[in-house]
Amino acid sequence: MGFELDRFDGDVDPDLKCALCHKGLEDPLTTPCGHVFCAGCVLPWVVQEGSCPARCRGRLSAKERNRGLPLKRLILKLDIKCAHAARGGGRVVKLQELPEPLERCDFAPARGRHAGCGQLLLRRDVEAHMRDACDARPVGRCQEGGGLPLTHGEPRAGGHCCARALRAHNGALQARLGALHKALKKEALRAGKREKSLVAQLAAAQLELPMTALRYQKKFPEYSARLDSLSRCVAAPPGGKIRAMVLVDVTLHGDLDPWICPDVTPEIMRGAQSRCGAA
User: Fold this and answer.
1) In the record, which residues are listed under signal peptide (predicted)?
2) Domains of the chain (ranges, CATH numbers)
């Protein structure tokens, strides 16, 4: 998925580029074979192919990847240009500050908000255009039965005609509907990409979960056997129940704070551990 290279203010170090999409790394992941990819690029590949996307083609499972946090910190500190630089936006910010500056950028494209206005403007110019220059700005309402707003540009277009105004109004509604369909399609595409990435991450987690459960399942009998052995070793040591619990802890962890039970001497500890070893 990555960040477009021409957005960065200066050259991007090759180590900060995704080896799959060749863009600036976005949410980087590293593989055991040393390659770095965007999470959104590599996870779907690994789930489907089971190998590294780079030329080495080494076998790779979804769990064999690490978050490239140091790389991510470096990338987020890079300077990136305004996405609207072609329209005059010259602001340069740190990548970690996005997307807030884009949402407030005066050079973002915007259309006049009067019905029937099709002009594409800079966001900073919209208010002045609507107030002073837009031919679609209202100047009253039709008194001949149509009831539609009269616009500033109608006298120059031959005066108001109810039928023509209604057709224009219908056309404006159709245009707005088309714009909404386009925006909906764009959001659906973005949501689809996000869903694909999340599904890949979920698949990776599902592959990893049984392996983790199996490891703990194999360790459980060993731990149970050790606890049974310890309970036999310290069934009735001098000092009672608390002392027995201390000896269990010492045998398991090999360490004891003298403030907890000062009467448990090193000789007693070694004796408990040797008895458990013999058991």
Assistant:
1) none
2) 5-104 (3.30.40.10), 109-197 (no CATH), 216-278 (no CATH)
